[in-house]
Amino acid sequence: MKSYTKLMIPLLVLLVFGLAGCGGDKPITNVGQLHFDHPLKIPQLLKPTISSDGTKHFQLTMQSGSTEFLPGKKAKTWGLNGSYLGPTIKVSRGDHVSFDIVNHLEVASTLHWHGMKLPAVMDGGPHQMIEAGETWSPHWTIDQPSATTWYHPHVHGKTAQHVYRGLAGMFIIDDKDSKKLPSNYGVDDFPLIVQDKMFTKDGQLSEKDDTTYGTLGNEILVNGTYDPFLKITASQVRFRLLNASNARAYNFGFTDGRSFKLVANDAGLLQKPVTLKRFKLSPGERAEIVVEFKPGEKTVLHSYNSGGEIDRGEFDLLKMDAASKLTESAPLAGQLSTVPPIEVPKNAKLRQFKMTMDSKINDKKMVMDRIDEIVPAGAKEIWEIDNFGSSHNFHIHDAAFRVLDINGQKPPEYERGRKDTVFIPNGATVRLAVEFVNFADPKHPLMYHCHLLKHEDSGMMGQFLLVKPGTESKVSKKLPKNDMEYEHNGHHE
Ligand code: C2O
Ligand code: CU
Ligand code: CU
Fold this sequence. Notes:
Elements: H1 2-21, E1 38-39, E2 49-50, E3 56-68, E4 74-80, E5 89-92, E6 96-103, E7 112-114, E8 135-136, E9 139-141, E10 147-152, H2 159-164, E11 169-174, E12 189-197, E13 219-222, E14 225-226, E15 228-234, E16 236-243, E17 250-254, E18 260-265, E19 268-276, E20 279-281, E21 286-292, E22 298-303, E23 315-327, E24 350-356, E25 360-361, E26 373-376, E27 380-387, E28 392-396, E29 399-406, E30 421-424, E31 429-436, E32 441-449, H3 453-457, E33 461-467
Parallel strand pairs: 1-15, 3-6, 5-11, 12-16, 15-23, 24-27, 26-33
Antiparallel strand pairs: 2-3, 3-4, 6-8, 6-9, 7-10, 10-11, 12-13, 13-14, 16-21, 17-20, 17-22, 18-19, 18-21, 22-23, 24-25, 27-31, 28-30, 28-32, 29-31, 32-33
This protein binds CU-O-CU linkage and copper (II) ion (2 copies).
CU-O-CU linkage is lined by residues 112, 114, 152, 154, 284, 395, 397, 447, 449, 451.
């Protein structure tokens, strides 16, 4: 009896801790399970119609459909102009753009331009609802440095579901600096939209969301492609990585250990390329890299285990196969962005934000008619984010920022450029030098929030107004209730 108990206790300990240690059952990985036999889907470039005044007009239709992810199985999905994800929009700095966003879903949604500088009423946040059957028609002038931005719904309480089902797409802004890099879309310049998913036995997207972070999938899609490969035909290739996952963060690298050049963060190009072997992206973040290939080389883009709650696991993402003959690319430019780094004045205003476990920011959950902060348009401020537990990140609409420090230390090399979304490690204090756009609007709020979509949906979001400098104290922090939920800025169908 005695020896039996002695044996049982360690066994029980092993069992309990063994299970807790790997998050339930087996380690989270897809390594060894893929064949890399599906050609990577490349979202179409959306063709605008150009009006006589030069405005580029685009149409996006939100629709439901079915998509084959797992071979031979069709999943019910949502997409824009297609069954899953949306086309890539590519414009140049200075362009006037206008959109018709047609909602052919059976439910209301919105379309937010993540990373875009525009008037608040065009932002597509939770106040710019598009009812089922209706059309929203925003328009603005592109006036910001080249960047890889993206679009996705922002319905308060429903963003996770709408994005997970497939409503997202890439929005590329070009300028003369950006053209120094490989820029031939689909040839030597590729979007890589990375999303984790869980599938049911019959190949449907599982919306089971049993973690405090929401769905953390065990399978990865790139541009909506399961088990993908990409044929490489140029000696230098630019990849625009977008983490469009609901909660998972990735630690990107290549299985052959190669290094590559990081050339851009979320909100624009770096001054100079930075040589890296790994970098992380949390949900909503983007990066551009340039990878050099020799004829016949093969490698796999991989996400390495970081061991945290949202970046645990090992994943193969995309196999790259270089052709036996490659087009010789121009040498990589040494000087990329000519935009100076974001600096704040000495007496810059400091705002503090406390993120807590209960999905609150500064002890409050998001309320649609409450304004939390009033910021002078065009201001440069320091925002200090304190994470009091669990993993979060932080995104600000209509702003670009530079990470000043994380717990007083310089940020890692891969996040020193212009950004609009940043990972906030558990327990950390992150200080940002934030530059706000210069559009004042005392009526239409903008958002700041955790971009882990379940957190955002459950209230980890606040609203700010950009107002004419000097009018801060005159602006109401209460929004009128009636025109709130269903404010339309476009025409009805
Ligand atoms: Cu990517 Cu407030 O959004
Ligand atoms: Cu945004
Ligand atoms: Cu969070």
